[in-house]
Amino acid sequence: MSLFANHKNVAPLYQTLTSYVQSNIRSSEAGASFQLGNVNGGAVFSTARDNLDDIASLLTTQTKQRSFNVSVPLAQM
Fold first, then answer.
1. Do residues 25 and 49 touch, judged by C-beta distance below 8 A?
2. Strand order in the sheet with 2-10
3. Per-residue pLDDT reduced to its tens digit, 36-53
4. Total domains, the chain
5. φ and ψ of 74, to 5 deg
6. Where are the beta strands (DSSP E) in 1-77?
């Protein structure tokens, strides 16, 4: 079994010269994966929010995602 977590926070006015980075966003992600014999599976939970300064003239988007998967090799059963 393995666990992972990721968090990133990019400031509202952050800019870079060399690559594109979406600014004004905060996102978090956590998940787990497992292997039990020939059965594999995992789960991931993530959230994201933009408009970190709560500027009234900008829309705020909040996203929550959940993902689950299980892989069972039916041919080997």
1. yes
2. 2-10, 25-36, 39-50, 62-71
3. 999 999 999 999 999 888
4. 1
5. -65, -30
6. 2-10, 25-36, 39-50, 62-71
Give CA–CA dist 70/77, Å, rounded: 15
Q: What is d(CA 69, CA 77) in angstroms, rounded to the nearest whole number? A: 19
73: helix, strand or coil: coil
The pLDDT tens digits of the residues spanning 2-48 come to: 999 999 998 887 777 777 777 889 999 999 999 999 999 999 999 99
Prediction pTM value: 0.75
Beta strands at 25-36 and 62-71: parallel, antiparallel or unpaired: unpaired
User: CB under 8 Å, gap of 24 or more: what pairs does 20-28 form?
Assistant: 24/50, 24/51, 24/52, 24/53, 25/49, 25/50, 25/52, 26/50, 26/52
- Which range of residues forms the domain containing residue 45? 2-76
